[in-house]
Model the fold of this input.
Amino acid sequence: MTLVMVGVPMLFLLNDVVFDLDEACPVTPADARRFEKLGFDYLLELGCELFAEDPLLHRNDPSRARRLAWLIHDRGPDINAALFAAPEAGCDPALVEPQFCALPGEVLAQLKAKCGKGRADTVAVDRAVWGRMAA
Done:
């Protein structure tokens, strides 16, 4: 399990939504023990499958997306941002392009504040973090 510094929120960017992973743990202690055996590669596959099914999972099912974010961060404590880019709903999971990165806490806090004010959108987050649409 990952240790968390007291007073510092554990934020995670999933696509263009910032989740606070310190809010009520999205995984029960029994599930956490069950998930301990899952490796990062399995979580990568799981994320691709989930986003292939619903490219807007992070918006349409935030509780499921938050659990995925928690699991990714638990397996890779340095990772605090993930992008799962699916071309369309119902696509082959092999077509989903995953990316991961470690962002400075200040960047995540700024994105969280913008999301809270309704100012962060997919294009703004992409330009600030992922750079897929930059040109």
